[in-house]
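>> received
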Amino acid sequence: MDHTSSETPTVLSESIAERSFEASGLGGIARSVNARFGKPEQDGDDWRCPIQITGIGDESVTYAYGVDALQAFLLGLQKADALLRHEAKQQGLTIKWLGGHELWMIPPLK
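>> returned
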């Protein structure tokens, strides 16, 4: 993949999908964590989906790449899920969505 895009923005200007989570540590203090997804855009021969997670870890925009817009978006959901879980573990936090531990960014494996 040859990603010929320009400089990475630090803020996602427009989102097509968002989800809010609750993060809490041993002290029980909860804070809001948000995952935002931008519209997939063509990047050379491939596509990329911008992702921004705020409230935990590095808040700069990152990308998931695919061969078409749908794959880029779906891989963006997987990447956001992995980033959220990794940052929560690194910081000793628990991430919940609607009070449950399953984030439903990607279907759970059976």
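>> The chain has one domain: 17-96.
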